[in-house]
Structure prediction request, 384 residues.
Amino acid sequence: MRTADIALIGGGIVGSSIAYHLVAAGCKNVVVIERETSQGKGSTGKSMGGVRAQFSTPVNIQMSLYSIPFYASFEERLGYPCDYRPQGYLFCATAEKHLAYLRANYEEQVAMGLKNVRLVAGDEIRAMFPQLRGDDVLGGAFCSTDGFVDPYSAMTGFMAWAADHGATLMKNAAVTAIARASGGFEITTTREAVSAGNVVNCAGPWAAEIARMVGITLPVEPLRRMLVPTEPFDQFPHTAPMIVDMSNGFHFRPEARGFLLAWNDPEETPGFKTDFEPAFIEKILTRAADRVPMFENLAVNPKKAWAGLYEMTPDHHPILGESPEVPRFFFANGFSGHGVMHAPATGKILSDLIVKGSTDLIDASLLNFSRFAEGRTIHETAVL
Ligand SMILES: Cc1cc2nc3c(=O)[nH]c(=O)nc-3n(C[C@H](O)[C@H](O)[C@H](O)COP(=O)(O)OP(=O)(O)OC[C@H]3O[C@@H](n4cnc5c(N)ncnc54)[C@H](O)[C@@H]3O)c2cc1C
Prediction:
């Protein structure tokens, strides 16, 4: 049996960032247990890679205020690239209620210390992007340090640095049982058993299955999200930010020589569905051409489109920290579509909580598991 001080279950971007932060904090015996033969087969490899600080709740803004500068200095810190591109996020409001919402968020973001966010007038948006249908755009919000990263590179960069400095990645090892033992846990995997003093659940959309192994019902549900990349298209600038049409949630960003289109179908229902629905192409192209008339000429190869899973919690905030029921069992789950952009902060918070028992990055009680039982949920509405 292998022994570890800390076993992380799941080698996606969250497990990898926690491994990095633990090793950077001086932890010597960190093991990441991953059931696949390579990293990135979970949500991380399916992500759109958007990173933004334009949230509505202070704790989500704080997580981004750590994470985005971290991504900006990733290569300097780790020696591996993450391809951070600060091209911004532009929210386009088409109703007064959207404007009021963006204004309230803007005030909160500035109060929290975000420097590069500003409200923009409808005319400014029309001047920035004359290719948009702007007749109904009343205004918006833009933050220049928001943008994109390459989630796969960030994940493998975190893990490679951790492995270079002593952590172990056990691949092809599915966790099938976790028993509580004196001094910690005995973890059964399809490869070899691991005895660990601390366990962190980093299993993304499968987090509830891992929690069930220690008798915990975790409110994390998988929800399918589909993305459609286009063929090369050069009539819209590739320096564009993530542009969000608040009238229906359609958003897109440049990707390679084309664009990556996203829209969250409100009719989607929870479940482990990862098949791409061909009918989605028409739904999204209709919305794309409605906001960007020249997108009527976009070419799309349905074979290149894909689906992945968000890991949703009831209040769209992650569940972080130690279980109140099972000491030394930690959660890093339920990112509700924000796990890439919040992975650096999550790594730091979990490392602080495991090593020191507290963190200065956020008020960790806000995101603990007990908030559900105690009626302290905090709703994030800026979910794309
Ligand atoms: C279409 C789409 C677009 C997205 N866009 C964005 C975006 O723009 N910005 C953003 O921040 N986030 C985005 N997300 C969300 C983001 O991808 C996730 O929040 C993030 O990747 C979660 O990382 P993770 O490491 O927790 O999970 P995962 O990457 O899913 O990793 C979990 C790992 O656990 C492993 N595992 C599961 N069960 C076991 C077991 N029993 N034993 C061992 N290993 C196990 C899995 O194999 C997997 O590798 C998007 C998600 C999707 C699907």
